[in-house]
Amino acid sequence: MGSLSSSRLGPTLCALGAAAILLAPGEARADDDIHWVSPGLMLSLSFGDKLNFGLGLDVRYSLVFAGNVSCFSGPRGAVGAFAQASWLNFSSAGRFAAGLHGGVDLRNPGIGANAEVGWTYRTALSDLHPGGHGIHVGLGAIGGGIVDLAFRGTIPWPGDERKPEFTITAGAHFPPMYGEPGLCIIGRPLRVDGRYVLPGVAGAPRRGRERGGRIDETTRAALVSAWQDDARGECASIPAFLALARDLAAVGAPRDLVDRALAAAADEVRHTELCASIAGDLASRTLTPELLPSPRRSGLDRSRELQRLCVESWEDGCLGEGAAAERARRQARGAKAPGIGAALGVIAADEARHAELGWRVVQWCLSEGGRPVREALGEAVAASPEGPAREASPEAEPAAWRGYGRIGPQDIDASWEQNLGLARKTAQVFLSARG
């Protein structure tokens, strides 16, 4: 280790850090993922045998055990592993560490804490300051899930005559150490390899006046972001419904269910256009969400596929789209800006039909799959989220926010709770009828 040259170690760390950030996931995802890999860069100042300045790479794996549900804005807890490599004093010296970490990330107010323990090795700084192994301990603060401020210590291995070393570190991770900030997807999401995925958006300037010229820029930016996210969610539902139609046909579902799934995909095309148009008018840009491909077939046998279709139709249709319909109705009631109330009325009616389709799929899967499907649905109903969907309150002028078809946390909570209560009652009726 002591012979590793600065011409190799420094540029290698910089390249690895840049690659890690550039290759980080580009899609926004809901919080249902429990496994996260978070690379980051760090600057450090160490006190011990010698004052050392460090530039390094820190990579974290986190297993999220609390807060790993979509529409969740509370604390997230995780444990995992870390690995670090630092280039010291722009010389041939380096420090390496690996071990375990764990802590909590508070979504509101956006701070957290992380502790770590493990092994560390520092190469020789000079003939007077040899390298050696040690025990690594650390305690850090997390800001916004990305900024990492830490105080770390190295306890020399027993028998090593080196002084203990203390390090102050500042760094940044992307994606955030404990996962992306919560993004609540209301409606039928697109699942790819167990993750909820949203498409990117292409934008181009356009001529013409902005919609709502009198609103302040902070409110305008919040509205553009909210409507653009809605457009992304609606666009993600297109391949999700196409996949539903494909999978229903594969297990021999009635043609009516397949046709209704295809019709729902066409509805989502219209919803995408409506939401993207509103966001684009506010931003004076042409916004076009990327149409993603449908996910691959599950490869399950028919019995397990019926269980999957039943549970996903309960979660995405009965719950997700039922809540989306109620939410759009509440948004439409407060909308004052031209055309927005009508657009939300269309979305509310369509989402209500999509929720009904979810119930039809659940009923058919129960009739076809028997006890295994009934047990799978029963477990899903019992485990369905107690809390309502939540979003952070934007920094926007309340009257304009409401007038442009947005609602506050209380209405969002109420729309989820109302639909969840009714959906559970209906599901229990279905389960009892086949008990």
TrEMBL record:
The keyword Signal applies. Residues 1-30 form the signal peptide. It comes from the Bacteria. Residues 381-404 are annotated as: Disordered. Keywords: Signal. This is Ferritin-like domain-containing protein. It comes from Polyangium sorediatum. The lineage of its organism: Bacteria, Pseudomonadati, Myxococcota, Polyangia, Polyangiales.
